[in-house]
Amino acid sequence: MELHHLRCFVSVAEERHFGRAAQRLHLSPAPVSRAVRALESELGVALFIRGHHNVRLTAAGSALRERAAEILRHADSLSDYARSFRHRASAITIGAFHLSPPAVLDRTVVALRNLTMWDVKIELVEPGQLPRRLAAGTLDFALLNPTPDCDHLPHQPIAVLDYVLVMRGDDPLAACQHVDWADISRRDVTLPPDTPFPSVLNDLHDFMVCHGVTQFDRIDSLDVAAMASRIRTYRSVIPSLSLEAGGPWRVFDDPAFAVRRFRQPPPPYVLSLAWSPDTPQRTGIDPRDVLASVAEPGALTK
């Protein structure tokens, strides 16, 4: 059943004349007549009693007129709602922070562009603000590490990244293929500040303490270049995301540094895709479709 047929039927029912109904619909009488006959054929009932100068509704036509008008009102309101939807938002915004793994961020952008006709924009945000911005609806999606602030937000893991230990290229530990915790129990281990990822850094700190590490050097920076300078200047060692994270972490892919894996690694860094609770309704995107395109194998089971 076509809405065009219903629209012609309702117009003729209200005008009681095919010619006037055609003028109202900006059509000629012939296609209006054909649409009504097609509807009568589909419904299996006559809708009008046709006279020389006017038409009258049959009993079936009278009974169906209001139902058809109601269907058209709902269809028109749906179109209006869709138009207002387009006006309310012209882009989908992904929140990320400057250390977000570029490969994961790029895959997320590509997935969203394949799922929508809207523009997809990236907004770099302080990590601690990501949950608040999602809750307020000023971000649609965000790449973040789940913290207690995210408990009320829908989110799913999309990438699992291992930690490695970074040191100077001439550090004695560089001769080892893997690092044992006993090897750094008396070394200065540099960690960035305990914000804005308190749960991540606290978990890492607590794990190292449980494995005998006692000397920590906190620096007031999340800048990877600053961490690299700390290694070169103070000969400290630093737990870092593996080089596969890409972006700023590739600074350690240099002969000046040595990157070694732990024999008994700490819990991995889990990166999640979170979204605002009203994002599916507002954008028409099912986050599961994004996750299916972005998540690394095994990430959704972590």
From TrEMBL:
GO CC annotation: protein-DNA complex
Gene Ontology MF term list: DNA binding; DNA-binding transcription factor activity
Xref: Pfam families: HTH_1, LysR_substrate
Annotated TM spans: none
UniProt entry keywords in alphabetical sequence: Activator, DNA-binding, Transcription, Transcription regulation
Domain of life assignment: Bacteria
Function: Required for the induction the katG gene for catalase. Involved in the response to hydrogen peroxide.
Family: Belongs to the LysR transcriptional regulatory family.
Protein name listed in UniProt: Probable hydrogen peroxide-inducible genes activator
Originating species: Mycobacterium paraseoulense
Taxonomy of the source species: Bacteria, Bacillati, Actinomycetota, Actinomycetes, Mycobacteriales
